[in-house]
Design goal:
about 120 residues, elongated
């Protein structure tokens, strides 16, 4: 995988998580900067999806390749769903959903990188 892209996405997910914690502590709802950070992360995830698909043949073990591809296709769906739920949810807990989405994205990115390191 593209290690600089993965590290950048991990950092961006951490920033999104920190913004969500800040909003949660101040009882604020979704605003434009939060959606913008989510959109930037999503673009990076789509680039990673395209690159991962083109290079997935380098993973020799079939079960690891299947897991890798499953994570690649799953991780881009998480933030849009979390932000959509947060927009519809008009309580302070909307930011907890965004925080959860950011944490899940970071965990899946780390796992994708781990599988890539094992297989390639």
């Amino acid at each position: 995988m593209l290690a600089p892209l993965t590290v950048s996405l991990l950092i961006a997910s951490g920033v999104l998580g920190l913004v969500a914690v800040h909003h949660l502590a101040r009882r604020r709802l979704v605003d434009d900067p939060l959606v913008l950070v989510g959109a930037v992360i999503e673009l990076g995830l789509l680039v990673q999806l395209a690159y991962g698909l083109s290079q997935s043949g380098a993973i020799a073990d079939g079960s690891e390749r299947a897991t890798f591809l499953a994570y690649l296709f799953t991780v881009p769906a998480i933030l849009p769903v979390a932000i959509f739920i947060a927009i519809k949810e008009k309580t302070q807990w909307a930011m907890a959903v965004v925080l959860g989405g950011a944490v899940v994205v970071a965990i899946l990115l780390a796992r994708i990188q781990q599988i890539w390191g094992l297989g390639a």
